[in-house]
Amino acid sequence: MSNKKMKNLTPTMQQYKQFEKERETKRPVVKNCIRAFLVGGFICLIGQVIQTFFMRYFNFTEQTAGNPTVAVLIFITMLLTGFGVYDRIAQFAGAGTAVPVTGFGNAVISAAIEHRTEGLVLGTGSNMFKLAGSVIMFGVVSAFFVALIKTILIQWGGL
C-alpha cells in the first residue's frame, strides 16, 4: 500500500494493516508454477497421444484429428469431474488444469452437477453454460474478427 493511502488511514487501521501483512500466508509461487506447468504439460501429452492414435489407427490427417481429440479430452474431463477426481487434480495443479481445453469441460460439467437437483431442463440445461457460455461467445466473436481481418488482408494484400 502506498504511503499516500496509508496517511489517509487512522492509526488503528494502519496497525491492523501491518498486523495483516505480517501474518499473511506466503504463497509458494515458483512451486505452484512448476506444478501447473507439469500437469498442464501432461494433459497436453495425453492429447498428443490421443491425436496420434486417431492418425495411426483411423487414418486421420493432422488437421482432421484435432476435433475428435478435443472431444475425447473433454469427455475424459467430464467423466473425471463426475467422479470427483478432476477437482483433486485441479487443487494440486491450479491453472495447469484450467488453461487446456479440459478446463472448459470441467467448467461445463461442474455447473451441470451443481444444479442437477433443480431439474433436467431448468437446472442442468439452463445452468450448464453459465460460466462456459461467455467463453464460447467470446471465442466465436474473436474467431469472426480474425477471419474478417484475414479475408481483408488476403483480398487487399495478396497473402
Q: Identify low-pLDDT runs.
A: none
Number of alpha- plus pi-helical segments: 9
Structural class: mainly alpha
User: On the 0-100 scale, what is the average pLDDT?
Assistant: 86
Overall morphology: extended
Topology:
Blueprint: H1 3-7, H2 11-23, H3 29-57, H4 66-82, H5 85-93, H6 95-98, H7 101-114, H8 120-127, H9 130-157
Helix pairs in contact: 3-4, 4-7, 7-8, 7-9
Q: Any overview of this molecule?
A:
Helix 4 packs across helix 7 (101-114), helix 7 (101-114) packs antiparallel against helix 8 and helix 7 runs antiparallel to helix 9. The chain is mainly alpha-helical and 159 residues long. It has helices spanning 3-7, 11-23, 29-57, 66-82, 85-93, 95-98, 101-114, 120-127, 130-157. The protein is extended. Helix content is 80%, strand content 0%. The mean pLDDT is 86. The chain folds into two domains: 29-128, no CATH class; 132-159.
Q: What characteristics describe this protein?
A:
159 residues; mainly alpha; 80% helix; 0% strand
Write a compact overview of the structure shown:
This protein is 80% helix and 0% strand. It has nine helices and no strands.
